[in-house]
Amino acid sequence: MAILATADRDNGRAQGLGKRNSGFSHAVPALLLIILFFVTPVLGLLLRSVTEPELGLQNYAELIGSGTYLRIFANTFLVAGVVTALSVVIGYPVAWALAVLPRHWSQLVFAIIILSMWTNLLARTYAWMVLLQRTGVINKTLMGLGLIDTPLALVNNLVGVTIGMTYIMLPFVILPLVGVIRSIDPAILRAGALCGANRLQCFTHILLPLSLPGVAAGALMVFVMALGYYVTPALLGGTANMMLAEMIAQFVQSLVNWGMGGAAAFVLLVVTLLLYAVQLRFFGASRID
Amino acid sequence: MLLDYDKLGAWKWLLLGMTLLVCLFLLLPIVFIAALSFGSSQWLIFPPPAWTTRWYGELFSDPRWLTSALTSLQIAAVVTVLSVVIGFLAALSLNRGSFVGKELLRAVFLTPMILPVVVLAVALYAFFLQIGLAGTTLGFIIAHLLVALPFSIISIGSALDGFDKSIEDAAILCGASPWEARLRVTVPAISHGLFGAAVFSFLASWDEVVLAIFMASPTLQTLPVKIWSTLRQDLTPVIAAASTLLILFTIALMVIAALVRKGRKT
How much is the ipTM here? Predict the structure, then answer.
């Protein structure tokens, strides 16, 4: 190493090592792409939200002033909240199990989770459209078991959206949480047990508090993702219960109302960035991956 | 205690039970579509009254499915190459560079990943309408590249983190030019990161739905757009057949990726 360091100083500049001191130029293609096709379009859309049809904030006023739009916001936050809660409650035990299971078993479960994650989103959503319909397997099974007499309305409403989205979001809670639980020192729990705590006390006083940062980070990520989700709500939801992303798409595609579309998109953008800022502030950058 | 598998006591069964249920929950739709794709009933009745390959026949005899699959494949291939090359350069810069605002740049590069896709889709759609890229292959490639690039940068960046740069310096001392050293020493050494970047970029483009819905034109659509527009009309079993093929394709990619990773370790 010493030889290399000396060589670096002596020959470096002549042979091009000195150029490493900057290295910014390599980032230029990516940066150009982002500025031209990401920053510019997003700023353009924001501009349209305050200039179309005329200069001013009337689009935002209409979004906040109209009961219809407020209900869509409420729906979106409600579904995102329920999906987040369900994902955490269902995902926590699985993440815990994954952290302690013998290696070959946890690898199998990991493979199943990854497979489901990488399976085409439309394929999975289609499956739920069929599974949840009135004559679908779930209704038939429930009726066959005598639990219900008439088919439940599980699709084309917020129930369907919630089921489909929880299914999609579960891995995003489980995977980061496994790492957090694995990083907890088992000796702390043993110490708790030695001090006389039973299993439930160990869980509520040691394991849960120590894994809480992971839970919060995962929950926040799922919540943010759910707020802006388009495909699953559009296919599993009904026309009566639209969500935010669908509203944006409809403003732009069907109504060709760029002002309102831009305003709604900007609201979603700001909420998303704010929530990520909260995440960064409290849980650090490493959690976003 | 609670983290020792053998000492979990009754909690073990609770955890195992939940895990089993979640695994079934995750696998249910996948197995279900695969079964339906071979079912004879048009109305997607389960279990199917009889088995047939009819839907695969319909899938392959409809040129629109094939065309959209080829479109997806072409776009994903171009996006993969661009994403790996641009991502490699950007990762080099973030990993090795020393300049003001490096952390900001890193954040900027990863932003397309955290932003709701629908916002990006609407913004790009408006922009492409203005500059004449809407409904073009180039438009698709740019849009997909934006979502693929963060995957590349992360994957290649973590490979670069694990690579000892002094090996590259040694090559330069032995007379290689900086680029020669990078291509002949660094690139092979981080090939697993480049491969990961390629797989993720390909899948990001291949599976992209939301951007594609906005980018598509009646004459130019990717496979997900074709599935989307068919889904909005009816729940035909042909989609089950298309979905099953997509799932097999994903499994094949995962197996290849796992084999490559295993081959690297031994």
Answer: 0.88
